[in-house]
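Hello,

Our lab assistant flagged a job as stuck in the queue for most of the afternoon. It eventually completed. Since we weren't sure the result was trustworthy after the delay, we are filing this so someone can double-check. Below is the sequence as submitted and the structure that was eventually returned. Let us know if re-running is recommended.
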Amino acid sequence: MQVFIVNPSSGRESTAGVYSETMNPMAPRGVAVIAAVARDMGHETFVEDQYATHRGADYIADVVVEKEIDVLGLSVLSPNVPMVETIVRLVKKRSPRTHIVLGNTHASFFAKELLEANPIDSIVVGEGEHTFTNLLKRIESGDSLAGVQGLSYREDELVHLGKPAPQIEDLDALPRPGWELFDLDHYIAPPRLIFHDCLLALEASRGCPWKCAYCAQYLWTPKVRKRAMDSVVEEIEWAARAFGVSSFGFEDAVFPWSESDGLEFADLMIRRGLHEKIRWFSTTRSDLVTEKLLRAMKKSGCHYVLYGFESASGHHLKDAGKNIDPRQAFETMKMTRKAGLLAYGVFMIGFPNETVNEARQTIQYAIDLDPDVASFARVTPYPGTPMYEKYKDFLPEDTPPWQWNNQYRPQKGETLWELPGLDAAQLMSLLREAMLRFYLRPRIIFRSFRIGVFSPGDMIRGAVMLLKEILAKVNAKQN
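-- returned structure --
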């Protein structure tokens, strides 16, 4: 069969405003693995990452018609729903026989609504590789889709809702990403990720045992499953050799999960000589690292660690299920610097019932911790999360899905979904204040230039974008 896998884009201007200019696309590993599933089954497989190519829905429909695509797969996150629906309607109008299947988190949580509102044929609910394999087999044979685990579908104008398939236990048995199907020149790391060349995503595990109220990951994949460390290192070696890539980032909830896992990974990287050729980073919690682990990570080629520090308020962290003492972060930063690693700190503003004073305490917390890079995000109750379920009655009527995005900036005439506490105007003002207070310090400016986070040109562009946003706010108030 002819299979076309698409990573649809969201409206960059509507989700990020003037800052869309800084949004370099990230290599979509999940899409690449799904494409590899189809490829390895012997189907002629095509891919399109609209975030990278900026080609529209008409282009997708043209490819479907010209290539006589049998199966079109679309990855659906909340912000890209408008593009997904546009593609679906165009494709069904021009190629009614093409089977359209959706996947990823938004499609899983809203399978019923999407199937009822759009001419979609099926939706993969939960992890996709095994369900997608079985779907392709049924489509190729012409058999009914009934009984395919993890699949919701439309048949004879009736919608049939399936439950998620069992989580995949043997992650090492999955195919490697089909990176050869992509133009990897698109995936240059954005400035905030420090590396300035092609950056590919790695996966050493799936799942998360913590139940943070603002995150759907533990609902999506509640059981933690880990790959063998030698399999992960072999994938790095393969990607470096096959594609000339030297920069990698782990997309896991946490990597490594333990000191022993981290030491094993570091030892394998060093023994294979990859520590001299490869740069990598990962995300972890401030209460999981040790000095011994951080030193080994540095020696094995790790350049920086991303920490979810989130908030200065232990109260808000506890209410959100984060269950971490914000004071721990100071010791973590001390160990990180001692190991010679850079730190990327993630902070959040807008927890339910948070005050302006508490938000400013978080901004000061970020300044006091002084990571090399910091990002400040609006707390967003993503669909499926406990926070979403608790506060969904706060949604204005017909809230569009793309507002479920921590970068979203409301357009003229739109009402932003607000949690109790800070209103939308206060949130946007505090986020701007956080960026200004953190980055407009002589020490951080000098350090950013020294370690290569930003060039002078990047700083000028950032200042211009910030000024544009401030002027737009002033003009909006005057009008």
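-- support follow-up --
The delay was a queue issue, not a problem with the job. The result is valid. The chain has two domains: 2-160, 193-439. The CA atoms of residues 199 and 247 lie 5 Å apart.
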